[in-house]
Description:
The structure holds two protein chains of two kinds.
Chain A: H1 3-9, E1 17-19, H2 20-23, E2 39-41, H3 46-59, E3 62-65, E4 84-87, E5 104-108, H4 113-123, E6 125-126, H5 137-142, E7 160-166, E8 172-174, H6 187-190, E9 200-207, E10 209-210, E11 213-221, H7 225-236, E12 243-249, E13 252-261, H8 264-277, E14 280-282, E15 295-300, H9 301-310, E16 316-322, E17 325-330, H10 338-348
Parallel strand pairs in A: 3-4
Antiparallel strand pairs in A: 1-2, 5-9, 6-10, 7-8, 7-9, 11-13, 11-14, 12-13, 12-16, 15-17, 16-17
Helix pairs in contact in A: 7-8
Chain B: H1 3-13, E1 18-20, H2 23-28, H3 35-42, E2 52-55, H4 59-72, E3 76-79, E4 96-99, E5 108-110, E6 115-119, H5 124-133, E7 136-137, H6 150-155, H7 163-166, H8 169-172, E8 173-179, E9 185-189, H9 195-202, E10 211-218, E11 220-221, E12 225-233, H10 236-247, E13 255-259, H11 261-270, H12 275-283, H13 288-306, H14 308-318, E14 322-330, H15 332-346, E15 351-352, H16 356-364, E16 381-390, H17 391-405, E17 410-418, E18 422-431, H18 436-456, H19 475-479, H20 481-493
Parallel strand pairs in B: 2-4, 3-4
Antiparallel strand pairs in B: 1-2, 5-6, 6-10, 7-11, 8-9, 8-10, 12-14, 12-15, 13-14, 13-17, 16-18, 17-18
Amino acid sequence: MKSDLLVAHAPLMEESWTDVGTGFPGADWWSLPANLAPLVARPQLNQELEELVRFAVVEGVRLVAVGSGTGWLPWPPGDDARPTLLVSPGHTTVWNGISVEDRQTWMPAGETLCDAEEKLAREGYTLSLWPEDAGTLGGNWALPRGSFRSREFLAPQTRRLGVQACLANGTWFNSLDVPRSAAGPGIARGMAGFGGATGLITKVLVSITPLGERRTAIASAGEPGPWLTGIRSLAEREMFPESVSVVGGSGVWSLTWTQNCWNGWTERVWNEALDRLGLTETDAPPEPGRPSGGHVVTLSWEQLAERLGTANEGGVHLSGVGPEGMGWWTTSPEPAGSHWWRWFCATAGGVLGPVSEER
Amino acid sequence: MPSEHLRIAMQKEIPGLRVSTTAADRVSYSRDTWPLFQIRLQQRRAGHLPEVVVWPRDAEETAAVYRFASRRLIPVTPVGAGSGVCGGAIPEENGIVLDLKGMTGPVDMDLEAGVAEAGAGWLGSNLEDELNRAGCSAGHFPSSIMCSTLGGWLAARGAGQLSTRYGKFEDRVRAVEWVFPDGTVEWISADTPWGEGALELLMGSEGTMGVATRVRFRVDPLPEVRLFRSYSFSSVADGLDGIRRVLQEGIRPAAVRLYDPLDTLLAKSLKTDSPDEAQATEERPAGGFGSWRKLLMQQAERVALMKPAIVQRFGERLARDSIMILMFEGPKEAAAWQARRSDEILSGIGRSEGEAPARAWLAHRYDVSFKQSAVYSGGGFADTMEVAFPWSRLLDGYDAVRHALAGELLVLAHFSHVYEQGGSIYFTFSANARSPQRNERLYREAWRQGLDAVVRAGGTITHHHGVGILKAQWMQDELQAGHAWLRGVKSALDPDRIANPGKLGL
């Protein structure tokens, strides 16, 4: 089937299509291949998505999951001649609110992080460890890039609790809303990093934290060394911010510290941080812009000092803190994983997957 | 292939590999610590004997064993220290048992980065001692710490007694050196975008997708302080309410355990309250009053387990309160704030019992470890079922399982491993059906009734013991379409199905 006939034949209602350009602001970043269908499928019901996946299997169509198009993965190579259809799977459900008793909520995967935070704020809660940007919850699960937030134990995955996903044969995986099962591998979190190749995520179950008074303070300096010493000493006392960001290079550095003051301890941390880091509170919190592309790796305090000593020429962006160090935005390539590519092919049945074969 | 032929072929193809076909080794490795095998021993029944047992020294030798097995379609069953209680290390289809305990060597530590790297064969207590000497800790303290390995913790997604503060072991793993069933070796690190997901799919695979030979994991500095608290509550519901409020205040006690009334009663009758007295009991020489008391207790227990329903009813009438113990540790200021705030929350719901019960728990916390329950020598059996629920269903889950098991079993429970979202329930059940055959029937029925009840109540069938053979039939209930998906992963990584076949229902 030719890609332009896909739209006519795919089992979707008329209103379940979106224009690539208008639906996805990031679409122009991509060099779109010729075998790509001109519209993006945006199923409105789980059943519609399920039928679309089965259609793709029968017709030999490749489905590529998209959220809001802010992803960083390169487009798959052009040697895959199959017609390709972009599918936005996160709009098949609606939000049913939070479970206050269980401190968690199921949210549609297509919800942007900004919108999700806004909805939760109205209920008095926050996702807390997630970046606030135009990316979707599903996208951040499928392609986690780290976070500006402080990360307790440097393990943001502990905030990701479960998913509902349509698998490559049109069946459904539904995580139990139960803490920490040991019933075999972690399928839900196992979908992290595979860009939708292992399942089309429709809903995510995430941990929520009460939203107190969110306060932000900033500082600027000619070099970041003293801040890192201060942040480290606070972290060693388990005094973490909600988010922290150190940005700079060439002798101009800025520090942004945000605290969700929701209990006695976070209040204490806020006061201590103001004092220790020489911060000034600001009314207009500047949420730092995320560098385009790349992901966060954890660097130890020693590695940070070493890298910062040689990084003054280029821009440096540190975000998130744990006792052992801070997150460093990088665009370095990842090592290839031969087994994992073979595994992709087998589990995804060749139908799902935006990940290039070079990986 | 007969054992001796296999041994000769392996030693020819993998020079230097230690291989055994002795009867003693084959019998030893026919079982793990699954209580069903203890019951079968009462019936004088043997398990599935492996053809050979091998002890590779590194990833390359391990990979060579898998390549050898893959070419001949021989099943490979990996074994750590054999403390698993679900039959995950049973060579059900005979073949090769791969003992990974030889994979030790020096522990590499980077305290600055808060990570250590060690061979998967390190025994937990030895590893913790080694780390402690350098001023840090793995933060993982399972009851089986003296008889479980680093690789085993990862393979079954283990949880230590201080998991509320330090996380389950899977939360601490940063990277693994993994040997796939086709004999390739690859490092997989959480610090790559896809590595986090890949690790999640390998941890908990119980040998069905290969094995870890080295593990890089997070370490923490030894705590500056430890603070102890104990509270009693007039009901389990009140105690659970207290724990939930503490956790949802952002407090992470290192240990928090709530015992149900019957477990509280037994704990009080069997344990001393002071750590000094606890130590003295441990050190008391055999014979004298201590051994008479022990004998008396064993006889009483034996008789009691023959009439569990009566004992349960009587005990529940006698038992009123549920006791909770808490331990806080870490930097002084943070631990003090957590303890103080917990006091504010809990004193409005329960009654303070001081520090002694919590300190006594710490002193006795490894008492069960590798020792088999004395119940077996009296002709009975005992086992534990660790399941988990969100807070909104935790009490219902507790009631549902107790109801399902009631009648022919004595059932105790405690709640531990708690999170903001919910927690785990650890049921202990025991009985003496007066014959080994009846014991086995009752044992199997207990698991069937118990896990069916868990599934109906919306819980997970396992929080940290894993699945093995015991719980394989409930995997479909828990994962639904996800189980078929896992079979796809298994087929891709192990097309010849040699890697621990039958475990996890794969």
